[in-house]
Design goal:
Radius of gyration: 21 Å
Shape: elongated
CATH class of the largest domain: Alpha Beta
Family: Belongs to the peptidase M28 family.
Subcellular location: Endoplasmic reticulum; Golgi apparatus; Lysosome; Secreted
Strand order of the largest sheet: 4-6-5-7-10-8-9
Domain Peptidase M28: 105-293
Protein name: Carboxypeptidase Q
GO biological process, one term: peptide catabolic process
Helix content: 25-40%
Number of strands: 10
Bound molecules: zinc ion
Length: 308
């Protein structure tokens, strides 16, 4: 590949599996002398929409230009290659890396009435990629995490513990806001009883995805049973919960994310198609209901949710 533009036409398997190409293609190809890389967008479905996203450069090799192309264009290049055509690609890119500037996490809370120093955290991220409007990634998650507090306040519901809403900044470029929060508020790690983040869509909600001990999952299972009227009583276990709240993955704090019918999430993710049209207001209201009920009941339990 030395001196060539390398095109990656990887098949979609899952986001976690397939995103490795977008993340590491440039650094790997550069180590073999490639001059640029083009990577098939990481999506299971396309209407000729390229998807952007984070990618990693490696300081030990030359930083070469890299861009995502649509699956349709990747397929076309592959067909041309197979029939022996000589592919000549001229890449023109306008992207530039601007210098860092100040941005902030947005924090609001409803103080607990009995144990205000103990905290259930609900969160989503405020930033999005420059394509689309970021309505789904992560406008929906930010909305329900802010809305949960607004709704509880409107209902005048007060909980034993504090419910804190954090709308993270700069998630997309590497969880910058979450890392800054964790560093500055290290003393709070013992005070978090549950960390929640919605960053995988706000489609029809099904329940909660949860990471924690069996005893903790038992408690959360009882909470999601309350969501029977909107048919969102599922509890799925996973060790891979949230994006920003992954920063606390080794602290043994129970973590939860919104389980929803997000089979089409990566159709829109990081593309021009991530607009308000993706959001359905009835589903969004139901997601808000799940998020608010779980945060409130968890914050008002008579016992702390068991930690690892
Ligand atoms: Zn996101």
């Amino acid at each position: 590949v030395s001196g060539k533009i390398v095109v990656f036409n990887e098949d979609w398997v899952s986001y976690g599996e397939t995103v490795k190409y977008r993340d590491y293609a440039a650094a790997n190809a550069a180590s073999y002398g490639a001059v640029a890389t083009l990577v098939r967008s990481v999506t299971p479905f396309s209407l000729n929409t390229p998807h952007t996203g984070w990618q990693d450069y490696n300081n030990s090799v030359t930083k070469i230009p890299t861009a995502c192309i649509t699956p349709e264009d990747a397929h076309m290049l592959h067909r041309m290659y197979k029939r022996g055509a000589k592919l000549l690609i001229n890449i023109k890119m306008g992207a530039q890396h601007l210098s860092d500037s100040v941005s902030r996490n947005t924090v609001a809370e409803l103080k607990g009435i009995l144990s205000p120093d103990k905290v259930v955290l609900v969160s989503g991220h405020l930033d999005s990629w420059d394509v689309g409007t970021g309505a789904m990634d992560d406008g929906g998650g930010a909305f329900i995490s802010w809305g949960a507090l607004a709704l509880l306040r409107k209902l005048n519901f007060k909980s034993r513990r504090t419910i804190r809403s954090v709308l993270w900044t700069a998630e997309e470029i590497g969880l910058v806001g979450a890392f800054a929060y964790a560093k500055r508020h290290r003393d709070e790690n013992q005070k978090f009883t549950l960390l929640m983040e919605s960053d995988e869509g706000t489609f029809n909600p099904l329940g909660i995805e949860f990471g924690g001990t069996d005893q903790a999952a038992c408690v959360i299972q009882e909470i999601v049973k309350l969501l029977h009227p909107i048919n969102a009583t599922n509890l799925e276990r996973s060790d891979n919960i949230g994006s920003d709240i992954m920063v606390w993955a080794n602290e043994g704090i129970p973590r939860a994310s919104l389980l929803n019918e997000n089979g089409k999430y990566f159709w829109y993710h990081h593309s021009d198609a991530d607009t308000m049209d993706v959001e359905d207001s009835e589903n969004l209201d139901k997601c808000l209901a799940v998020w608010t009920a779980v945060a409130y009941v968890a914050a008002d339990l008579s016992i702390d949710i068991p930690r690892k």
